[in-house]
Write a structure and sequence with these properties.
Blueprint lengths: L3 E12 L1 E11 L4 E7 L4 E5 L4 E7 L9 H4 L3 E4 L9 E11 L2 E8 L4 H11 L5 E14 L9 E14 L8 H4 L10 H11 L4 E12 L2 H9 L11 H7 L25 H23 L9 H9 L4 H19 L14 H17 L18 H11 L9 H8 L8 H5 L3 H20 L9 E5 L5 E6 L19 E8 L2 E10 H5 L3 H29 L25 H12 L15 E6 L4 H9 L2 E2 L2 E5 L7 E4 L11 E5 L7 E6 L6 E6 L5 E14 L5 E4 L4
Parallel strand pairs: 5-10, 6-10, 9-11, 12-21, 16-19
Antiparallel strand pairs: 1-11, 2-3, 2-9, 3-8, 4-5, 6-7, 7-8, 9-10, 13-14, 15-23, 16-20, 17-18, 20-24, 21-23, 22-23
Length: 712
């Protein structure tokens, strides 16, 4: 009689599954080839949740396979990488089902020489391994009929997602499976995370429906009616437990009217003992996996012994563990407290940040503090960090020389497909970031005296931009009843400003790493960053020193602009002239309305610094003890040594840039300051760090600046 099947359903997060398939029927002219992406054959796999093997079978029933993704142009990838478009090698043009297999046609890209090189290897049979990635939405799991057998998981709702060229003829997860070779089972969550990393950090929800065979009432009744012969012996209690049906709710007490079925075969004591040991081992293994979860303390040793003594099957033991978990969840309620919320960072990103901190701390321990997470790399030389980074990424470095380790860590060599699988190594990224951070820190810490009195701006592109000046006749005027509002006017000042790009490249060679040259990581990038900041200052102050022509054809400081004074030292007379000239500047509309501009900064060279301090910081004027210094603290003194080269005695009075435009310095919108990026070295045997600055400076309005051309 047919058996009655009991079902149990559970939800899991499963990684993208992969299978190897052959390349066939290459059409060199059309750049296409065919693949057999499934035959439905059973494949032995490992269940990390229960730490046991099973047989996976892909159903070929058209109702069980979702082909929309394949027929919609599923990608052909490079070793399951999905981070950027460079990983896309081609496209799946169409896929179809035949009675015993699924087939597809893939077309290869021809966008660059790298694609053509891969294609030639496919045509010549050099690359012949294709790995198909598929998503299983639902499994139907059937427990083994015989002790020691493997359960069968049939994918009854699955979806082929992508195909990848791979360098090694093995499952993409084989490197993860090697975790079990070290000894004790690992944490299932950690293993699932490792599985997901092997296929691009992709996991998908999956329903697993377990079917366990139970005897039907008719079969049980027939077995009960059959007489017992003299040769039959009653089974000991332990033997009854071992032979209990897999789906029974309570193996020691069968329901009334359903006695145990008669044994159709002879089982020796050795067979019964093996079955009992297998059941005990399976239960203890499942409990061990449960104890490695966040609520593993819920199952005690007494609970485990009770499961074994009561003769529970593996599935029944799992059900009891989940019941305890459900009971704990219900007792805590649906709302989680703040203590249960954790913010975690990707382990690879954390590792790179810690390496970067360790390098920076060694190079400059007085400035860079070592975070607690980076102490695992404390004191390591650059070479030791390079070796450790490779080992943490799964690369065995035993037997490698110093040059080989550094070349692989910096991306200048490829051993065993490491670069193909991992892309840029952690060490090269951390090293480049360390150099880049040194550049930016030196740039931001360099003194720049122009920032208080010049106006900062941004430009959206590299085209010339025109700055506008606001006319004084924008002042409000009285509007009579039923009168009209008069229109103001915005005057085009005609001053244009345009960005330009400036930069340099610093090469970090493998010799730096082998020699453990920490000076390179600190002093040279700092000099580079300081040079970028100095370039900005040079550009701005060259305007004051060069006195360029404005849009009206007149020099910035000129008598016609009313901002050029009578040569003389800083004194009450010359300051009064400067203050008056700035206050009486007329607005651009020509209506002779004074703008009442107030000076705020006095800019001098190092030669004039003491003179400026005497006039603006002393309480009384030297030699005139009875005279109060009316200019005490009236202006902020800005000392700029760049003026001493050509204008050692000249000094300037400048207004607050929030009141009126003076000199504008601008950056490209979104890239303010020094921007750094890195790449694998082409001209150097290492990595290259590029520092780029998109910068411009221009005098916008002469009315907010006054110059005294003193000669002594």
């Amino acid at each position: 009689m047919p058996s009655v099947l009991a079902q149990r359903s559970e939800q899991r997060s499963m990684p993208l599954q992969t299978r190897l398939v052959p390349v066939s029927s290459v059409d060199e002219k059309a750049r296409t080839f065919e693949t057999v992406w499934t035959t439905g054959a059973q494949v032995r796999r490992f269940d990390w949740g229960t730490w046991s093997y099973y047989l996976e079978e892909l159903s070929l029933d058209p109702a069980h396979i979702r082909l929309e993704r394949f027929n919609g142009g599923a990608p052909l990838l490079n070793t399951h990488q999905q981070w950027d478009l460079d990983s896309v090698l081609g496209v799946t043009e169409r896929a179809w089902l035949e009675p015993t297999e699924g087939r597809s046609v893939c077309r290869f890209s021809d966008r660059d020489e790298r694609m053509n090189a891969y294609w030639r290897d496919v045509v010549n049979g050099i690359i012949r391994n294709i790995s198909v990635g598929y998503i299983v939405h639902r499994y139907q799991k059937t427990d083994p009929a015989e002790p020691g057998g493997l359960p069968v998981w049939v994918a009854i709702d699955w979806e082929p997602a992508e195909q990848s060229l791979v360098p090694v003829g093995a499952d993409a997860l084989s490197g993860v499976r090697s975790l079990t070779q070290a000894g004790a089972p690992q944490d299932p969550k950690e293993v699932i995370d490792a599985l997901a990393r092997g296929v691009g950090h992709r996991t998908f929800p999956c329903e697993i429906v377990t079917r366990a065979a139970q005897p039907s009432p008719q079969t049980s009744a027939a077995a009960a009616a059959e007489p017992t012969t003299e040769e039959e012996h009653p089974m000991p209690k332990a033997e009854e437990r071992a032979a209990a049906p897999a789906g029974a709710e309570n193996p020691t007490e069968l329901p009334a009217g359903n006695p145990a079925p008669a044994q159709t075969g002879t089982r020796t004591e050795a067979d019964i003992l093996v079955a009992e040991r297998q059941r005990t081992t399976q239960i203890r293994t499942a409990v061990a996996a449960f104890r490695r979860t966040a609520h593993g303390e819920l199952v005690t040793e007494a609970d485990v012994n009770g499961m074994i003594e009561r003769g529970l099957t593996l599935d029944q033991a799992r059900s009891e563990m989940f019941a305890k978990l459900e009971e704990r969840s219900n007792s805590q309620g649906p709302t989680r407290g703040a203590a249960n919320i954790r913010t975690e960072q990707d382990e690879q990103h954390q590792r790179r940040a810690d390496m970067e901190s360790a390098m920076s701390h060694r190079a400059n321990p007085g400035v860079v503090q070592l975070p607690e997470t980076a102490r695992r790399f404390r004191g390591m030389t650059l070479f030791e960090l390079a070796r450790r980074s490779l080992e943490l990424q799964g690369q065995n470095t035993e037997g490698m020389g110093r040059n080989e380790v550094v070349a692989l860590a910096m991306g200048n060599a490829d051993v065993g497909g490491f670069r193909s699988m991992h892309g840029t190594s952690d060490f090269s990224i951390a090293l480049a970031n360390t150099v880049g951070r040194s550049l930016r820190q030196a740039y931001s810490s360099a003194p720049q005296t122009f920032r208080p009195w010049a106006r900062k701006g941004t430009l959206t592109d590299f085209r010339a931009a025109t700055r506008m000046a606001v006319a004084g006749n924008l002042k409000l005027e009285k509007v009579n009843e039923f009168g009209e509002f008069k229109r103001g006017k915005i005057v085009d000042a005609g001053e244009t400003i345009q960005l330009a790009s400036y930069g340099k490249v610093v090469g970090v060679t493998r010799q730096v790493v082998i020699n453990d040259d920490l000076d390179f990581l600190s002093r040279l990038p700092a000099m580079f960053g300081r040079a970028a900041a100095d370039f900005e200052s040079d550009t701005v102050y060259s305007i004051l020193k060069g006195n360029p022509a404005m849009a009206d054809g007149t020099a910035l400081f000129h008598a016609n602009h009313g901002n050029l004074g009578t040569a003389g030292a800083i004194s009450e007379t010359t300051l009064n002239e400067a203050r008056k000239a700035m206050r009486l500047q007329k607005d651009p509309s020509g209506n002779n309305q004074p703008m009442n501009i107030v000076g705020k900064y006095v800019i001098v060279g190092a030669t004039k610094e003491t003179e400026a301090q005497k006039n603006f910081q002393a309480v009384v004027i030297a030699g005139k003890a009875t005279d109060t210094n009316v200019f005490q603290n009236a202006y902020e003194i800005i000392v700029e040594p760049r003026l001493d080269a050509s204008l050692p005695f000249e000094w300037f009075l400048v207004a607050d840039p929030s009141q009126i435009d003076t000199i504008e310095y601008s950056y490209l919108d979104g890239d303010e300051g020094l921007y750094t990026e890195q790449r694998m070295g082409f001209d150097v045997d290492g990595i290259e760090v590029k520092g780029r600055l998109d910068f411009a400076a221009k005098a916008i309005d002469w009315r907010g600046m006054f110059k005294n051309p003193a000669t002594s």
